[in-house]
Amino acid sequence: QVQLQESGPGLVKPSETLSLTCTVSGGSISSYYWSWIRQPAGKGLEWIGRIYSSGSTNYNPSLKSRVSMSLDTSKNQFSLKLSSVTAADTAVYYCARDRGSGWTGDYWGQGTLVTVSS
Amino acid sequence: DIQMTQSPSSLSASVGDRVTITCRASQSTSSFLNWYQQKPGKAPKLLIYAAFSLQSGVPSRFSGSGSGTDFTLTISSLQPEDFATYYCQQSYSTPPTFGQGTKVEIK
Question: Quick check: helix, strand or coil at residue B81?
Fold first, then answer.
């Protein structure tokens, strides 16, 4: 059973960079796309982007100028960086596996709340 | 981006009821449409992918139908554990986009 776990600071100051890591267990990070999705409190879901095991990426155009993703196959981890954050970036951030055929999240992490505040 | 619109935004139903949730896309997504269930404080759970395919482990009372721009999620006999928020999501084009959610509450 594949499991994902997000980790990183729960509080980030405005204008700084949000950094999160997702650790995958129960399966290899190879041969799949790995994604980040976020959800502001009481609101809907927003896809941030994905990274393939080869390192190729796709980002949401609305966030593309501020997002970067990377992965470390030796640690079975992938990471998200979101720069120049504002209060609007406060949300629960989820990592997920994409089973393919477009984007379909079949395994998700439990989510981690990131608050942007000084 | 393709806009996804769900109706209703919320509904009240009783255990045993048949429940139908509708999702409409702003342009055709063929059959690239997924459904998720989310309970408070939890991550979304994949129920249906590719419009009508049941994800492994999901009870058969859940079913999906539709193609093009109009899709439906049906729960044939609502169970206590089904009270949650349901989201549709198109996987036809990047970025994938979600509906605003339908909250299913106890009547």
Answer: helix
Question: Regarding beta strands A91-98 and A105-108, do their DSSP bridges make them parallel or antiparallel, or are they unpaired?
Answer: antiparallel
Residue of B28, B40, B14 whose CA lies nearest to B101: B40
Per-residue buried b or exposed e for B34-63, using 16+ beta carbons within 10 Å of the residue's own CB = bbbbbeeeebbbbbbbebbeebeebeeebb
Contact residues on chain B for A44, CB-CB shorter than 8 A: 87, 98-101
Q: What is the pLDDT of residues A5-21, one digit of tens each?
A: 999 999 999 999 999 99
- Residue B79 CA to residue B100 CA, distance in Å, equals 23
With an 8 Å Cβ cutoff, the interface of chain B facing chain A consists of 1, 32, 34, 36, 42-46, 49-50, 55, 87, 89-101
For residue A10, give the amino acid letter. G
Cα(B83)–Cα(B86) distance, integer angstroms = 9
- How far apart are the C-alpha atoms of B19 and B37, rounded to whole Å? 14
> In one letter, which amino acid is B13?
A
Segment B36-48, tens digit of pLDDT: 999 999 999 999 9
The answer to whether the CB of A116 falls within 8 A of the CB of A89 is: yes
CA dihedral B52, B55, B58, B64 (to 10 degrees): -10
| pLDDT above 90 for A99 | no
Q: Provide, as residue numbers in chain B, all residues whose Cβ is less than 8 Å from the Cβ of A46.
A: 98
The number of beta carbons lying within 10 Å of the beta carbon of residue A19 is 16
